[in-house]
Design brief:
By secondary structure, the protein is an all-alpha fold. The protein has 6 helices and no strands. α1 runs parallel beside α6, α3 packs parallel to α5 and α3 packs antiparallel against α6. It is globular.
């Protein structure tokens, strides 16, 4: 698994750099939690109380990167595969990931994050307004998008921690039982 110490945010930078670095740190956490799994482990339901999977969370996070930076901030249509996703399937990103490879999910997420960085880079000010209104009240600011994406990504990174603990513990117990 990737050593995340290299990505931890600097302590003496301006507000924008702080927001960008914290979001990028959690993006690296997400990749670190999936990159060394095989497809079976990435798509397994490791905890009985939820149908969340590591792969599903990564695909969902790619979709929210697309939603907030591409669709809301810039007013552009969704990118693939989200543009072709069935609109009548609730939580499609979470559930469709069982058909994706780990490499494909990592690539999808990393490309979404790259597009998000490029979109944010088009704005000089954190006070810049998104093109598309949100929540029926008007546009949010770039600052709000950064804070929301840090919150969203960090929350799901916590879910990934729990799922990986369950997967890794199951793997370790299976190895112990195989040795007996």
């Amino acid at each position: 698994m990737t050593d995340l110490r290299d990505f931890y945010p600097q302590t003496r930078v301006d507000e924008r750099a702080t927001l960008e670095q914290f979001l990028d740190f959690y993006r690296h956490v997400v990749i670190a939690k999936i990159e060394d799994l095989d497809e079976a482990r990435a798509s397994c339901r490791a905890l009985p109380a939820t149908d969340l999977t590591v792969g599903g969370i990564v695909k969902h996070l790619a979709s929210v990167e697309d939603l907030w930076f591409r669709r809301k901030l810039l007013g552009l249509p969704p990118s693939e595969p989200f543009a072709s996703a069935p609109s009548d399937v609730r939580d499609w990103a979470f559930h469709s990931s069982v058909h994706d490879s780990v490499a494909g999910l990592c690539d999808l997420y990393e490309r979404a994050c790259d597009r998000s960085r490029a979109a944010a880079g088009l704005f000089d000010s954190l006070d810049a307004s998104a093109t598309v209104p949100s929540f029926g009240t008007g546009p949010v600011t770039l600052r709000w998008v950064f804070v929301h994406m840090i919150e969203e990504t960090a929350r799901h990174a916590g879910h990934l921690d729990l799922l990986r603990d369950a997967i890794d513990t199951t793997d370790a117990l299976g190895e112990v039982n195989r040795r007996r």
